[in-house]
From TrEMBL:
Pfam family, one: AA_permease_2
Species the sequence originates in: Mycetocola manganoxydans
Gene3D superfamilies linked: Amino acid/polyamine transporter I
InterPro entries (alphabetical): AA/rel_permease1, APC_superfamily
Coarse class of the protein's main subcellular location: membrane
Transmembrane segments: 21-43, 49-78, 99-123, 143-162, 174-195, 215-233, 254-278, 355-375, 387-409, 421-440, 452-481
Cell compartments where the protein resides: Cell membrane
Membrane topology: Multi-pass membrane protein
Keyword Cell inner membrane attached: no
Name of this chain's protein: APC family permease
Keyword list, A-Z: Cell membrane, Membrane, Transmembrane, Transmembrane helix
One GO CC annotation: plasma membrane
Length: 519
């Protein structure tokens, strides 16, 4: 069968099994680019580096390395589960197959919550940094202006996501290049200043920066690692696009591993450069100065880059905007998958006949993110800030479910070989346990009234918002459970360990033919 135009509707797998997504679109490079863009590396460093240094001082580089370990272990879990079950529902699908419909549904909800909250944050950052480039930058403190700008960014990136993965990938190649050029410039020029003796607080790189036994404050170490976990989040977008990848059982898992390693090198490299240039002093440009913690790049950009300092501002803006687009992708595909298996209303399974994207789910994600962002800003910017601080709970929640799901799903295969034992069992289990600990410890920390910016019901507002968002998912799940259309899912009929996943038959089914059509 040949289709003469790329705009023609693509066929589903035999028997109607496919979801209708644009299979065979992404290769390894495209998957890695989207995975990196989802993590927003420049913005992640802006939001985290200063606070990690305040928590552990010179041990910041090893804190980033330690935080990488559970991410790597969970990436192994994603890879193994994807090889067996290459479904765009990822945690939802795998959690359901391993533990049943209720755990799977909540895993899917965790992905949605994380996406919704971070979109509000990214929109706000995008708006602020855009107006920092105008005049003296004072417009960045104009809340209504920043909010309207953020809404426009969400709307624009929703449109890009609606138009298709291939269109978004081309855009992300450019945006990611801008980010890494800026980071490379920052690192190189910082080290040149150190070598020339023109750095304000030049500090020799020390092996103690990489010594995990050099931590003197255990609570600070835990705080730093929990902070660092956030900046790795987002690589799993590679897996959510598995049905649109040329080799869905191999490339997405490999892309996730490559992405996490690139992020590790990026974060450690930038941290070392900043520490070597600015030192750890508590005044001036020192990274130990609390006034610099909110944005290390803003504090150092003029000193390091001089008249080219605007490049870092542009990089943060680009980082936030590009991640806005890639954050929409996994959530829209997660709700598409949930609807395909009758865990959500059928409308969420709608796929655009021309762009082959989850059209309804994408639009709903964009609208919900806008409503949440505007609503939270209108009610209280402090509550919005606390919701962003609580983001780690949703991340640890659904990553942890994925790690444990891997172990349980492959429990009968763990002793078939050493490879199966480590990659399907031990590593995912350790990753799940680490993230489970991170979840519990974060809940304890956030419960304190001194954590975050608000106090609600006599306890920390961050705890109320974070746990409340997950608990709200239970309410929504029970509401859907009462609807007639949900029965096949909650009875384990539409999705269980033995059911086939709804994916295209092979990547070649939709590959480009020699004559330029679609086969």
């Amino acid at each position: 069968m040949t289709f003469q135009s790329t705009d023609a509707p693509r066929p589903a797998a035999p028997g109607g099994a496919g979801k209708g997504l644009a299979a065979g679109t992404l290769g390894l490079w495209g998957s890695v680019v989207i995975g990196l863009a989802s993590t927003a590396p420049v913005y992640s460093l802006v939001a985290t580096l200063g606070f990690v240094v305040l928590a552990v001082g010179a041990q910041a580089p090893i804190a980033f390395i330690v935080a990488f370990i559970p991410m790597l272990f969970i990436a192994f879990a994603y890879r193994e589960l994807n090889r067996a079950v290459p479904d765009c529902g990822t945690t939802f699908t795998w959690g359901t197959k391993a533990f049943g419909p209720f755990v799977g549904w909540m895993g899917g909800w965790g992905v949605a919550v994380a996406g919704m909250v971070v979109l509000a944050n990214l929109a706000q950052i995008g708006g602020q940094y855009l107006w920092l480039l105008v005049g003296d930058g004072s417009l960045a403190s104009n809340v209504p202006l920043v909010t309207v700008t953020g809404v426009l960014f969400i709307a624009l990136m929703t449109w890009v996501s609606y138009r298709g993965v291939e269109f978004g990938e081309r855009m992300q190649n450019i945006l990611l290049a801008v980010q890494y050029i800026a980071l490379a410039l920052f690192v190189v020029v910082a080290f040149v200043h150190v070598a020339n003796g023109t750095a304000p607080n030049a500090t020799p790189v020390s092996l103690d920066w990489f010594n995990p036994l050099a931590f003197t404050d255990y609570s600070g170490f835990i705080e730093a690692v929990l902070l660092a976990l956030f900046i790795y989040w987002g690589w799993d977008t590679c897996l959510a696009l598995n049905e649109e990848t040329r080799d869905p059982k191999r490339i997405p898992g490999l892309a996730a591993l490559v992405t996490t390693v690139i992020l590790l090198v990026t974060y450690v490299g930038v941290a070392v450069a900043a520490m070597s240039y600015a030192g750890l002093g508590t005044d001036g440009a020192g990274l130990g100065n609390e006034d610099n913690a909110n944005d290390v790049f803003l504090a150092l950009k003029d000193l390091i880059l001089g008249p080219w300092a605007w490049i870092l501002v542009v990089a943060v803006l680009v980082s936030a905007v590009s991640s806005t687009q890639t954050t929409i992708l996994p959530t829209a595909r997660g709700t598409l998958s949930m609807a395909a298996y009758k865990a959500l209303p059928r409308r969420f399974a709608t796929v655009h006949p021309r762009y082959h994207t989850p059209s309804f789910s994408t639009l709903v994600m964009g609208i919900v993110a806008i409503v949440y962002y505007v609503g939270m800003t209108f009610i209280s910017e402090n509550i919005l800030a606390d919701s962003i601080l609580s983001l780690g709970l949703a991340i640890a929640f659904y990553y942890g479910i994925t790690g444990f799901a891997c172990v349980w799903y492959f429990r009968k295969d763990l002793f078939n070989s050493a490879r199966d034992f480590f990659f399907k069992g031990l590593f995912p289990l350790l990753g799940g346990l680490m993230l489970g600990y991170a979840f519990i410890q974060s809940c304890i920390d956030m419960y304190d009234v001194d954590y975050g910016y608000t106090v609600l019901f006599g306890i920390g507002g961050t705890f109320v918002v974070g746990v409340g968002a997950l608990a709200f998912g239970v309410v929504l799940m029970l509401i859907w459970w009462t609807r007639p259309g949900s029965k096949p899912f909650f009875r384990g009929e539409s999705l269980n360990r033995d059911t086939d996943v709804l994916v295209p038959e092979t990547p070649e089914t939709f590959g480009r033919s020699v004559d330029g059509g679609l086969t």
